[in-house]
Design goal:
333 residues; alpha/beta; Rossmann fold; seven-stranded parallel β-sheet; two-stranded parallel sheet; 12 helices; 15 strands; 42% helix; globular
């Protein structure tokens, strides 16, 4: 099988690439940057800005030619930045890849989405597929991912079967996003527990998220149960966010988080900081935003039952082992 992975040099994209290579698939990747490490693995790599790449004769058209499946993983993540940048990377790019896939008659398309497309700022407990999209968003990332997910699912049909996966809080060895940011703030003493600290979350070990993508892609075809649908993906066991994080900090010999701030206070601080950063054009991102406050202070647990029922997803690495492997990797840095 020949597969295109957009963003194959990224954290999740790279894990998907490794799974496909391990079973003998021909893998192509397209990204904005160069990734010699992918080429060393035998991946055919192309460089392009997918937001402006039409796919008519350029690198995208070359990358997608004769592919049996596309895993569209590339995206702009984050909680702060220009809306136009998020829209270009998440919406325009998705539209371009979908159109290129349809022109190339690719039969299967797996889109990497995010649970934040449904996040309203309130608790989500054992949420399932029927959770509606949010109407008001706290930052540009979930809003543009919501638009892009709907674009992808709208392309599902007889010409191309499409599904979307929403992995939550991806972590693991090589994590460049979630844990490094939390660890840096914890080391500097700037991390505060938001709320009472009782909130449970669904985490996603990167190997499990990659496994879900490959499994969903393998079983995807016109009329299959998961065609045209979106699925939450993560560990089957939930974790107390602050207990889990303090456990990781203890293993890495970093002082645990003891200071806290109430959820309403964190939201107010986030609103003020957003205002200051926006109007004073301050560099970087605010240390607190409304989205961060809401994410850190609420429950986010998701049911894996729909993914199991429709394409057989089961985690391959349980939470305790995923945490152990991650801690060991961070110890070696």
């Amino acid at each position: 099988m020949k597969a295109l992975v957009t963003g194959g040099g990224g954290f999740l994209g790279g894990a998907i690439v490794d799974l496909l290579i391990a079973r003998g698939d021909e893998v192509v990747s397209i990204s904005r940057g160069a990734y010699p490490e992918l080429e060393a693995k035998g991946v055919l790599c192309f460089q392009a800005d997918l937001a402006t790449e039409s796919g008519r004769g350029g690198p995208l058209a070359q990358a997608i030619a004769d592919c049996d499946i596309v895993y569209h993983v590339a995206a702009k993540a984050g909680v702060w930045g220009r809306y136009g940048d998020f829209y270009a990377a998440n919406v325009d790019a998705t539209r371009n890849v979908i159109e290129a896939a349809l022109r190339a008659r690719v039969p299967r398309f797996v889109y990497t989405s995010s649970p934040s497309v449904c996040f309203t700022g309130e608790d989500e407990v054992n949420a399932s597929n029927d959770v509606p999209y949010a109407e008001d968003f706290l930052c540009a990332y979930p809003e543009t991912k919501s638009i892009a997910e709907r674009l992808a699912l709208a392309a599902n049909g007889n010409a191309m079967a499409v599904c979307a996966l929403r992995p939550h809080l991806i972590f693991g060895p090589g994590d460049p996003h979630l844990l490094p940011r939390l660890l840096e703030r914890a080391r500097s003493g700037r991390l505060r527990r938001v709320g009472l600290g009782s909130n449970e979350v669904t985490l996603s070990f990167v190997d499990n998220a990659a496994h879900a993508h490959v499994l969903a892609g393998d079983k995807l075809k016109a009329g299959s149960p998961h065609a045209g649908k979106a699925y939450f993906i993560g560990q089957e066991e939930t974790a107390n966010l602050w207990g889990w994080l303090n456990g990781v900090l203890q293993e890495l010999e970093i002082k645990p988080i003891k200071k806290s701030i109430s959820a309403p206070s964190a939201a107010r601080v986030g609103r003020v900081m957003e205002f200051v950063w926006k109007w004073l054009f301050l560099p970087g991102e605010p240390p607190m935003t409304r989205f961060i406050a809401a994410q850190l202070g609420t429950w986010h647990t998701f049911s894996m039952q729909p993914a199991y029922d429709d394409f057989g997803y089961r985690e391959v690495v349980p939470l305790f082992m995923a945490t152990k492997l991650t801690v060991e990797a961070f110890r070696q840095k």
